[in-house]
Amino acid sequence: MAMKLEFSSIKNQGIFQPEFQNFSANGRNIIEFKKQPQAAGGIAVIYAPNGTGKSSLTAVLGGEATSDELSFEVIYNNGRTIRPETRAFHTIGDQISRNVIEGETSDYLVGQEIRREYELKKKIANGFETAFNELISEYKNNYKTTKVSDYLLTIMQGRNLKAYTFIRDIVNKQSKGKNIDQGQFLSFVRDTERQPRLVDVDADKKGFVISNTKIIERLMQIDLEQIVANAEVQEIEQSDDAISILDKYKHLHTCIVCDNDNIDRERLLQRKKAKRKIIYDSLDAKTKALLNDVAMDSKLLVGDPFGIKNIVLAFISSGEVEPVDRLKEEIKPYVDEIVDEMIVALFYVFATTPMYSWWDEYSNLLEAQPTLDSEELLYIQEIISENIGRNIRITRDDDNDHNFKLMLDDQALLGLDRSEMHLSSGEQNFISLAFALLLARHSNQEFVVLDDPISSFDSVYKNKIAFCIIKFLENKKQIILTHNTDLIRLLNVQLKDCFNLYILNNVDGGRNGFLSVKREEKEILISLSNLVELFQNKDGRLETVIHNKRLFLMAMIPFLRGYIHIMRDPENWYGKLSRLMHGYENGTLDIAEVYKKTFGYEVEPTEMISVADILNVSTSGLDIIDADEYPLLADTLTQTLVYYHIRMKVEHELVDVFSIPHPEGQILMLTDIIQKAFRPTEGASQEQKDKARNNRVFFTSRKTLLNEFNHFEGNMNIFQPAIDITEAALQKEVADIENKLVELRTEYATVH
Fold first, then answer.
1. Counts of helices then strands in the chain (DSSP H, E)
2. What are the beta bridge partners of residue 9?
3. Of 285, 342, 431, 702, which is least surrounded by CB within 10 A?
4. Is 455 exposed, middle or buried (0-12, 13-18, 19+ CB in 10 A)?
5. Nearest Cα to 16, choosing from 72, 91, 92?
6. HEC string for 425-454
7. Which fold has domain 3-107+427-517?
């Protein structure tokens, strides 16, 4: 099944042309991934010259919310709609955005044992959280215990200190069991010898104790020896009963007990209240507490299976402690049984779970010495050790729950600012990108977007990065944005034909969108030998795609010179072609002949081309070869001819206007010409010096002139940097340079 993204719209402020906001069904809105063998992922490489919106596209796909300024909509495989809110794209920016290697160690460690350890750790943590929440609910509903100060827990503290410590933390509203050492807890509950033995007790009395722990606590804590007997205390209850009756039937004038008429209810009520007050006031404080908090508690009116009220009142009246002692002895087994039930609940909390087997496996893994057994990290370790001389290792953090720590020598790697690594920029960039790839590999996102991943690397690392991209992200759908053709070739070196290639076009009036590069053109981009075979017309394709043979031969001059320079050149074609590549020369050459002797194919029987021809060529509306068949090569030849023309024109104009001598056979470099043209004369004013400096800066800063595009032997690449600029940008640069040349000729021609 094909893996393709079909974009409906892409918007990032005003960066993308209108076509991107409403893609038509022209095929330029589709990115299809080339499936990797024996893997779930695929790769699409998008070649994007500087200024086309490469980084802007990365920012769009990495967005997490649709806005007026940033949005996209895409259909994956004609089914699923993806928008910023979907968060389907994991993006990796350039090295500047990766100052710190972020994330947790578990994001990067993927070895089988390490993965299992983290899996078990998560299961265990979730299991404990579920178990403790169940216990909290059970203790609340079944035993009315919700606070660490509750009576049953105070009894448990003296009865079973270990269990008390666990349950106390579980019912604590702040911790909810989080402070419990999991290993100690499991060791306790797995030891069945520690489990209390429960006995049968009267259910009603047990229920009474659970529901009335406050009464029980006060009763059990009263010091009977400090209670002063008072025989009249019974009258307090009688008075309370009488007062209650008088209040209840205050509308009656007949006594409901003796049927006497015309009773003075109010006077009788006041007398009873006064009598009660006299008796109550005569009691000492401890007796009052026993009376109020125990005997007279309203809950005893609902049920009093132990006869607590009568026994306590009798004790206060008589001072006889034996009945109260017997009462306490009767209640104590019920309290102990309830406490034991709460403890037993600990032993059954994991009864229906595989917690014990998880823990045993996890403990065994903890005992093992951690190693970098993941293939990815082993590759990184090998590369780092080989090229940097630093060692990546893994240790356990004893101060942080035995979690893994990735170390670079003796420094914690994660969270470490690049400036603290004491490495070169290339070394820092490699480590940062390698770990960014690992993070992407193990992210939940299905798609990974890489923005120019090798642009900041030298040749030592480029091939290794290409390997890491293919290896680490083999199960992801990758969009690799680049303006570097080296990456395209290196990916193919690592895994032949592993990607589909597109060109991002985003210019005013252009064929905008993702231009698919056909297999034939991809091959000539990847392989110099394939490119040469095309120029040799071996399969007859070249002759069918050339639209203008003269312009084609002109555009091929820089490549021809470079190619000949590295081949046998008995006829000194290199020297003859060089005369056509400097604007101050006046050479003429049959380029058709040179082409035929170089590649064996006759484009034309003859095609005489001079320096003047190059200087006078029109750079607008160029149509050299079929852009539908070979869009990348068509752009390359067009750009090459434009570069070639404007460079020649600058050389010609500066040498002519400023009368720069150029002896026969002497090569003048463009930089030398610029320096000589704008070297202030002796005695020049400050204004003249400033003008000369500004002109010098203008020309030396033109990218088209500094990158030595036409020196093929220095780059070994016809495609880059020739097309590393948008058509619009190049045309603007040409216009700026031509205007400057006109300005200079007008100002200086008469002087020189």
1. 31, 15
2. 73
3. 285
4. middle
5. 72
6. HHHHHHHHHHHHHHHHHCCCCCEEEEECCC
7. Rossmann fold (3.40.50)
Facing residues of 482 across strands?
47
Task: Tell me which amino acid residue 703 is.
Answer: K
Q: Given the DSSP bridges, would you call strands 392-397 and 608-610 parallel, antiparallel or unpaired?
A: unpaired
Sequence-ordered list of residues with C-beta below 8 angstroms from that of 261, at least 6 positions apart, any chain: 253, 254
Q: Which residues pair with 396 in a beta bridge?
A: 404
Give the side-chain half-sphere CA count within 13 A for 282: 16
492 Cα distance to chain centroid? 28
666: Cβ contacts below 8 Å, ≥ 6 apart: none
The whole-number pLDDT of residue 49 equals 78
Which tokens belong to 296?
């007279």
Per DSSP, what are the bridge partners of residue 393? 407
Give bridge partners of residue 403 from the DSSP assignment: 397
CB 315 within 8 A of CB 324: yes
Average confidence (pLDDT) per 10 residues, the chain, 752 residues: 89 90 80 90 90 90 91 90 94 68 61 72 93 95 93 93 95 94 94 92 93 88 60 52 56 58 58 52 60 74 85 72 86 94 95 94 77 58 64 68 70 71 74 80 90 77 84 92 86 90 83 86 87 94 96 94 86 91 92 96 96 93 91 88 91 92 82 89 88 90 57 54 66 88 84 54
Q: Which of 465, 455, 461, 406 is nearest to 434 (CA)?
A: 465
Specify whether the CB–CB gap between 523 and 539 falls below 8 A. no
Residue with tokens 């110099």: 528
Closest CA to 548 of 624, 637, 640, 627: 624
Give 479's strand partners.
44, 449
CA distance linking residue 110 with residue 372, whole number of Å: 9
Give the containing element (helix H, strand E) for 61: helix 54-61
Angle between helices 112-143 and 322-347 (to 10 degrees): 150
| Domain range summary for the chain, segments of one domain joined by + | 3-107+427-517, 211-337, 527-748
* First-to-final CA distance of the chain: 71
Q: What is the pLDDT of residue 713?
A: 44
Side-chain-side CA neighbours of residue 206 (13 Å)? 16
Task: Spell out the residues 6+ positions from residue 601 whose beta carbon is closer than 8 angstroms to its own.
Answer: 535, 536, 537, 542, 543, 595
Tokens of 61: 């796909």
Sheet holding 392-397, edge to edge: 392-397, 403-408, 411-412
Return the residue matching tokens 């595989």.
Answer: 354
Residue 689, both tokens:
């010096």
CB within 8 A of 557, min separation 6: which ones? 577, 580, 581, 591, 609, 614, 644
Neighbours of 144 (CB within 10 A): 16
Q: Length of the chain in residues, anyone?
A: 752
Query: Rg of the chain over CA atoms, in angstroms?
Result: 46
